[in-house]
UniProtKB/TrEMBL annotation:
Ranges for domain CARD: 1-84
Record-level GO BP terms: apoptotic process; regulation of apoptotic process
CDD domains for this protein: WD40
Start-end of each WD repeat: 640-670, 725-766, 818-859, 930-971, 1009-1041, 1051-1092
Keywords: Apoptosis, Repeat, WD repeat
Listed name of the protein: Apoptotic peptidase activating factor 1
GO cellular component, one term: cytosol
Organism: Cyprinus carpio (Common carp)
GO molecular function list: ADP binding
């Protein structure tokens, strides 16, 4: 820059800095090519920074700055610079004006750079440096093609290296041949300026002559120039410029360049800006900052998917009417495109005209086909096969039509999926719906009828490429078409439920029943609720692979349910063909308390929580992922890999915009949409985090395994903790604020819940939860895993082990409990209105409970220690309950075992204190009380004549009682508790066969066999009494001779404790089951492994059987084996394949009682529910 010009800038610097708005001036200077995009972004709106950049530049920058001041009405400031304007050399002058001379339009008043797109266009233009060719910039209407094409050539280096002959811009548009000739004449005239020949000044008379004239001018006068053709619509127009020159063209039709010769490059323009860029444009129009725009701004950007055209049109309108944010948002939402009218240099008067112009270039029959796309949904990609069904055309023909739509930017293609999927931009779809509003229902009906015609014999299968679309959206199209009868028939069909659940899971199905509930309820609201409840409670089973038998699952529904009715019909039909199905005959008095059961993670679910508005559930667990679901259906909304280790907790902020997570990696992170940031850290594992409930003063509470400072309060905007709560000396597992944020409740491994005042951090109250729990079988300490407040702040609910307990914290009394989880419960939480309760567990499920339906403390549930007597068609069951009752008899000691005599006149029960009672049936009168055992009685059994009772105990003894007189015989020898025994009866004598954790087996008092190094867990004797088998914690099973007591077979192969065994009735096989859920079948001839019965993959309990295999029973014909674990399974002995599975509500089944004809099965689960299962008639085993 000349010294005089520089001096003038320095003298005027203070005045200029005070008065100018840098952003307004920079647009002009970038257009003139004196400022780069990088410099513009560096300067931003700082006038001082702009002047510093100018002082380092040449004379052209001074002149451009002067001209910008004049254009922006800074005339008084321009006068300060006028007297010192420098002179430009001819070469400099030409470089400065090359874009203006070529007709390249200036930047729009509001401009936001798109660097990635800009660099891509320039990269393609550099490819034309040494050879003629074409660069096609294509995209849908209003995507910013023209603006970006003009911006791309505002690069001095690009022009100097590639196009020193100049840049020539021609706006083409939709034009007839006569209009095209006028445009070409204008371009010829511009290029011929400076020639003296009169012949050269005569306008060409035809398009062909104009084409030749342009060829000559480019070849002779502008050999290395760039011709920019803006908004080209058809190939015939483009061929008129096929003159072997360098061309940059903008178009909606991607395939135009295929009609001309020469090298061709493509640059696609995305249909929308990201939210940040779009908000920046709106902010520039209204002279504000993006973060200070009203909330409607984000909604406008979201509604139009960031379309540059729409954002610019609305921004320009808002410049005139800045209080109309809500109005223009409503117009977008109502599809009132005519109200969003021209306020810029765009070619069309309103948005709908811009859309319609694209359609008019299609052939009439293709316009009709495009109209059918009105039935598509936003953000849904459709395979061509669906449209092939709709249009009744060959797939290849449909793909050709769709390719034309794609080429004209009327449709988008997802090339990441094969076969390709197609979708509309939201604005295109909104326009189509508005244009065809009166025909929408008929168009949906057309699609449904075409589907029914095409799939009239069978539903779509996974092999059909359109399968996913039909299963997901067929109910939607039926609802939109008003085909209510077809929708009823579809949604109230167990076959449809099976097919869709197998392909897509249960969440989509549940969502369908919620979304179309109003329509379905007009037919039958009860049936809709029955199907919805069935899916809500069994959806986690339907996520398993292999896919469970949905008919068997449905047989567990109430007998009055339509789901059960359809299942029973199908079961009877299939049973006649040899399939096995079980009907739960006593289920009518069992109601599930869970409202929804989800299986969101592979691995334990450590936490699940409601959003503040109750519409979403966030969950996290051992798979290091954060997931968000719909509360109504369990449909997944978001998934993030937030931590490097297990995520132990997640919490919504008061406004639901953020989710905090904490992990065993000792970090607390906050997630916003798809981004994650680390805020705080502890010294040890962080177990829980939670935001305050209200937004008045946002705090985040965290608790950890730190020794003393294990509970802290944080301000999310500060790096250090706000306060620390002291009181727990063991790890704090959970913390939660009271509804008014006045108190913080903490749950600890020390068995207490403490309440702290948030303002002072002082302890207010402490509840000793451990003291209120009844003694458990294994005497595990009641570690309090979590707690939560009710909505009114009057109650606290806490979880310990696999149960959830409701407490009144003012009285410290347990009010209610709910059971159903199969393993430890990690978290519980009330919904915002208190009507629902959410719990998550190690069993990999989330359960949603109705608060007013959970068990009260007076509710009774059966224990698993039961006995069953089968007599003809009658089934007599005896079992103690959680209230310590046996039938009608009550006792102060906890009942641990029970049995019933063969004549069903007496029952015996053994207690924890060692007392044994014999009761009359059905009166419940005590006939005899037997004392002698000093510790818990584990097992009892009557002999066949009912006169002798045998018991085994924790005191290592077995006692044989003449119970009517109280006389007994003590059998000693075991060194550890005797858990169980067998009575072996034959025609001449009886033997007592017992085993113990000391690894020994005994027969009566005389024989003592040390058979295993580990505890003996089960024993069985062959029906011919020749052999007996033992299984152990040492992972082996052994077969022994009953006569010689020598081991005949050693069976190895199990990978865990062998928990159960059973001989087949023909004594040819032995079945063994282990704690890994695996069942093995062995030959008793040589000990060979015959079959392994197990699932293909482990289930939610990390087992092949939902837990330990606890009992095994063969059918009389030895063809079927039934087993218990976390659920009940029936197996084919010949093939080792599962024949059927019955999922119980609870888990950890202890044993199963089987009738002699193998048609009735009885068991009790871990939450005290009794199951009497009968084989569906017509089946054969």
């Amino acid at each position: 820059m000349e010294e005089r010009a520089r001096s003038c800038l320095l003298r005027s610097k203070a005045t200029l800095e005070q008065d100018i708005k840098a952003s307004y001036l920079m647009d002009h200077m970038v257009s003139d090519g004196v400022l780069t995009n990088e410099e513009e972004s560096r300067v931003r709106e700082q006038a001082a920074a702009l002047l510093e950049v100018l002082l380092r530049k040449d004379n052209r920058a001074y002149i451009s700055f002067y001209n910008a001041l004049i254009r922006e009405s800074y005339g008084d400031l321009a006068n300060l610079l006028h007297s010192d304007l420098p002179l430009l050399s001819p070469e400099g002058e030409r470089s400065f004006g090359i874009l203006s001379e070529g007709g390249v339009p200036q930047r729009p008043v509001v401009f936001v750079s798109r660097p990635a797109l800009l660099n891509l266009i320039r990269e393609k233009l550099y490819r034309l440096q040494n050879t003629p060719g074409w660069v096609t910039v294509f995209g849908m209407a209003g995507s910013g093609k023209s603006v970006m094409a003009a911006e791309a050539v505002r690069d001095r280096a690009l022009i100097k290296e590639c196009f020193p002959g100049g840049v020539h811009w021609l706006s083409v548009g939709q034009c007839e041949r006569a209009d095209l000739l006028v445009r070409m004449q204008s371009l010829c005239f511009r290029l011929e300026q400076g020639q003296s020949s009169e012949a050269s000044q005569r306008p060409p008379c035809s398009v062909e002559e104009a084409k030749e004239r342009l060829r000559f001018l480019v070849l002779r006068r502008f050999p290395r120039s760039l011709l920019i053709l803006d908004d080209v619509w058809d190939s015939s127009t483009l061929r008129s410029f096929d003159i072997q020159c360098r061309v940059l063209l903008t178009t909606r039709n991607r395939g135009l360049a295929d009609s001309v010769s020469g090298t061709s490059f493509e640059v696609p323009v995305e249909s929308g800006l990201d939210e940040e860029k779009a908000l920046e444009i709106l902010a520039l129009y209204v002279n504000g900052k993006p973060h200070k725009l009203p909330e409607q701004a984000r909604s406008i950007v979201s509604e139009c998917k960031g379309s540059p055209l729409v954002v610019s049109l609305i921004g320009a309108l808002l410049r005139e009417f800045p209080d109309r944010w809500s109005y223009y948002l409503r117009q977008l939402q109502k599809k009132q495109f005519k109200r969003i009218r021209k306020s810029s240099s765009y070619d069309y008067e309103a948005l709908d005209q811009a859309m319609d112009a694209s359609l008019q270039v299609l052939e009439p029959e293709h316009q009709d086909l495009y109209r059918d796309l009105s039935i598509m949904q936003k953000d849904v990609k459709v395979p061509a096969k669906v449209l092939s069904v709709l249009w009744d055309l060959e797939l290849e023909e449909v793909e050709d039509v769709l390719q034309e739509f794609v080429n004209k930017s009327l449709l988008f293609r997802d090339c990441n999926q094969r076969p390709y999927h197609y979708y509309l931009h939201d604005l295109q779809l909104d326009f189509l719906i508005e244009q065809n509003r009166d025909q929408i229902a008929e168009l949906h009906k057309k699609l449904v009828r075409q589907y029914q015609k095409f799939y009239n014999e069978r539903p779509p299968s996974p092999g059909d490429i359109d399968c996913s679309y039909w299963y997901r959206f067929l109910p939607y199209h039926m609802a939109k078409a008003g085909l209510s009868k077809e929708l009823y028939s579809l949604m109230f069909s167990l076959d449809w439920v099976k097919e869709k659940a197998q392909f897509m899971g249960s969440a989509h199905l549940i969502n369908d029943y919620v979304e179309y509930g109003e329509i379905l309820d007009k037919e039958n609201s009860e049936v809709r609720l029955q199907f919805q409840e069935f899916l809500s409670l069994n959806g986690h089973h339907l996520e398993q692979r292999p896919f469970p038998d949905i008919v068997q699952l449905a047989l567990s529904q109430p007998a009055c349910s339509e789901v059960y009715r359809q299942a029973l019909m199908q079961a009877q039909k299939r049973a006649s063909r040899g399939r096995l199905y079980l009907d739960w005959v006593n289920k009518n008095n069992q109601d599930s308390l869970s409202l929804l059961v989800m299986h969101p993670h592979q691995g334990s679910v450590y936490y699940a929580g409601f959003s503040k508005d109750g519409s979403k559930i966030a969950s996290c667990g051992a798979n290091k992922a954060l997931r968000v679901f719909k509360t109504t259906s369990g449909e997944k909304l978001l998934e993030l890999q937030a931590h490097d280790e297990d995520i132990l907790c997640c919490s919504f902020s008061p406004d639901d915009r953020y989710i905090a997570t904490c992990s065993s990696d000792r970090k607390v992170k906050v997630s916003v949409s798809v981004s994650v940031a680390t805020l705080f850290e502890h010294e040890e594992q962080i177990n829980h985090c939670q935001f305050t409930n209200t937004g008045r003063r946002v705090l985040l509470a965290t608790c950890s395994n730190d020794k003393f400072t294990n509970t802290k309060l944080w301000n999310p905007n500060k790096p250090t903790s706000q306060n620390t709560m002291f009181g727990h000396m063991e790890p704090v597992n959970h913390c939660c604020f009271s509804p008014n944020d006045a108190y913080l409740a903490t749950s600890s491994s020390d068995g207490t819940v403490k309440l702290f005042e948030v303002s002072s951090a002082n302890e207010w109250k402490s509840i000793d939860v451990n003291s209120y729990f009844p003694e458990s079988d294994d005497e595990i300490k009641a570690i309090v895993k979590c707690s939560t407040w009710s909505a009114d702040g009057s109650r606290i609910i806490c979880a310990a082990r696999n149960a959830v307990f409701l407490w009144n914290f003012e009285t410290s009394k347990k009010k209610a409990e709910c059971n159903g989880h199969l393993s430890w419960v990690h978290c519980v939480q009330f919904s915002p209105d208190g009507s629902l309760l959410l719990s998550s567990s190690d069993d990999q499920t989330i359960r949603l409970w109705e608060t007013n339906r959970v068990h009260t403390s007076s509710a009774a549930a059966l224990k698993r220690d039961s006995d069953v007597l089968f007599f003809q068609s009658d089934v007599t069951i005896v079992a103690p309950d959680s209230r310590n009752r046996l039938q009608v008899q009550s006792t102060r000691d906890l009942i641990r075992c029970t049995c019933i005599s063969r004549n069903a006149l007496f029952v015996a029960l053994g207690t924890e204190s060692g007392t044994v009672q014999v009761l009359e049936v059905p009166s419940g009168k005590t006939s005899q009380t037997l004392t002698g055992h000093t510790r818990t009685v584990h097992h009892c059994q009557f002999t066949d004549d009912g006169e002798t009772l045998v018991t085994s105990s924790e005191d290592t003894t077995v006692r044989v009682w003449k119970w009517r007189t109280g006389e007994y015989l003590v059998l000693e020898g075991h060194k550890e508790p005797v858990r169980k025994f067998h009575l072996l009866n034959n025609s001449t004598s009886s033997h007592l066969f017992s085993w113990s954790f000391d690894g020994t087996v005994k027969v009566n008092r005389t024989s003592n066999l040390e058979c295993h190094k580990g505890a003996v867990l089960s024993c069985d004797v062959s029906s011919d009494r020749h052999l007996f088998a033992t299984t152990s914690a040492d992972r082996t099973a052994k077969v022994w001779s009953n006569a010689s007591w020598e081991m005949t077979l050693l069976l190895k192969g199990h990978k865990d404790c062998v928990r159960s065994c059973r001989f087949s009735w023909d004594n040819k096989r032995l079945a063994t089951g282990d704690d890994n859920g695996e069942i093995r079948l062995w030959s008793m001839l040589d000990g060979a492994l015959l079959k392994i019965c197990s699932r293909d993959t482990k289930d939610s309990m990390d087992s092949f059987h939902g837990g330990w295999v606890t009992d095994l029973q063969f059918s009389p014909d030895n063809r079927v084996l039934v087993s218990t674990g976390g659920y009940i399974k029936w197996w084919s002995v010949e093939t080792g394949e599962a024949l059927q599975t019955f999922y119980t509500m609870g888990a950890n089944l202890k044993k199963i009682h089987v009738s002699a004809d193998f048609t009735t099965f009885v068991t009790v689960d871990s939450i005290g529910i009794l199951y009497v299962l009968k084989k569906v008639e017509g089946g054969s085993l």
